[in-house]
């Protein structure tokens, strides 16, 4: 009773009943060590508690003898039995969920408890000649990724030889911008878009679209030209004051909007249901495959970078993402593999982890999302390629898996993925006190993988199988306190990462300059416009690279805006034979017949003083698509001749020359 009152006086004033105690005899019966029941013993051996786990071994620092001495201790005197006092205070921790003694300090392990555990093990070894298989216990097991041993030695890379492809830049000698562009979007793709758009329009609304291949070319050319010459709204391109004749001469405003809402790249009814469930972007998949085919046809360099790209879109779409740190935070995520020059080699739209699992090998399934993206985009790269990526993709397991495929990863890494290397690197506080440009390097025992920590404005962690700290160089960095650039030393891995990692950012920047960003609610149209921009940016980067190899003067190399404008005018001027003219003439007649009751745009007739200046009124030939009725009263003919000054259509043939009569 004295003991109980003393124990409870140290806690709260309210009396707390003590939990039931077990003697050693009862404990042995519960453990099954007396009646010889093996099944009970194996069930209890799964417990993770060191007091009840009969297979538990004390930590190495607490053992006083080696394994050889433990084996020879069977012949020594047994450990003395616990006293009556110890029996009275012995508790079964599993009965009260690990609660301690009455004083509240039972969670600490005393040497007496370890001796009792050893006694239980000695009794079990005497009763049974065969030890049961120990159950799964997490005690003493190393954490995931702690199998590598790190040491402060330099990296000794063992890399496979990269085999360069035959350079084909000379094969592109004399190429025009259209030739570069047709690597990605050719006439076959335009014909497929024309056929699918006509079929889908007729099946959905019953109203034929009657578009042609040339008109699809003109539509894309108009969209590209609108991205180079920006107006607040699309309707302004057909206004009187700001109209652009290169666009308005090809189609009316209503025709442009109808084409924009009717463009299709496949017939929906031909797509099976299982493909629709498996591929979230099936509505634009033929267009994406053609762009991807052009990207994969480019030469594979020795160095490539992998990063994520956002396709800006805030409307409803199958797989929309939000990345707050991106310039366009809301949209569709696209993983891109590009060269250091920014030329896209491969891409894969994010549809979830399940879609990536279907595209990688079986041993790569457990790599995580970043590792799966690396495995997918490295499939088209050659053996011995050096791949650069950011910390979203980098992990020790992923780097080791890519090494088996002879793909060598370099990138930043999160500190929680470094396992045992994090404790051996210099701490942030130590590096900050040492000063800027401090670096620390660790490598594995075989020297094939290294981790470098460099302190600039903040500590930077990097992992590589190619580059280490040496050879260091110097670079200029901005100092906020001194308000000037200072010279700091920089490890080799940082220099190479900065040189090779910016390819995806470069293509993103080129696309953002003149993006086809007309407002639309259709995610399919946004995808078509984005990947057309990607094809244009890729074409210009390849064009500039080819001319730089040929040592062409810089003044002769078109800038990106000039390249896009040239491509727009080329597409707007596409004309492939008389068949297209026949289609357009039929389309114009049908539109006139269908729009008889609609209000038409009427050009104001100039004053008579303007009309009779004979030296200023020159005829202008107009395309057949824009042909209109003669403006002279009583004439029913159609003409393609327009007065440059008066901007009215007039006949030049027939019994009466309306053009002459109008101006006299």
If you had to describe this structure to a student in words, what would you say it looks like?
With 664 residues, the chain is α+β, with helices and mostly antiparallel strands. Among the domains are: 177-271 and 515-573, no CATH class; 611-663, no CATH class. The protein is built from 25 helices and 16 strands. The strands form four sheets. Strands 1, 2, 3, 4, 5, 6, 7, 8, 9 and 10 form a ten-stranded mixed sheet that branches. A two-stranded antiparallel sheet has the order 11-12. 27% of the residues are buried. The model is unreliable at 1-13, 36-145 and 578-586 (pLDDT under 50). It comes from Gymnodraco acuticeps. Residues 1-150, 579-598 are annotated as: Disordered. Residues 37-51, 65-78, 583-593 have a biased composition (Acidic residues).
Largest sheet: 10 strands, mixed
Q: Can you count the helices?
A: 25
Q: State which percent range the strand residues make up.
A: 5-15%
> What is the rounded distance between the termini?
132 Å
Query: Mean of residue pLDDT?
Result: 77
> What's the count of strands?
16
Specify the helix fraction band. 25-40%
Please tell me what the overall shape is: elongated
The low-pLDDT segments are 1-13, 36-145, 578-586
Radius of gyration: 39 Å
Question: Which structural class is indicated by helix and strand composition?
Answer: alpha+beta
InterPro entries: PGBD
Organism: Gymnodraco acuticeps (Antarctic dragonfish)
Protein name: PiggyBac transposable element-derived protein 3-like
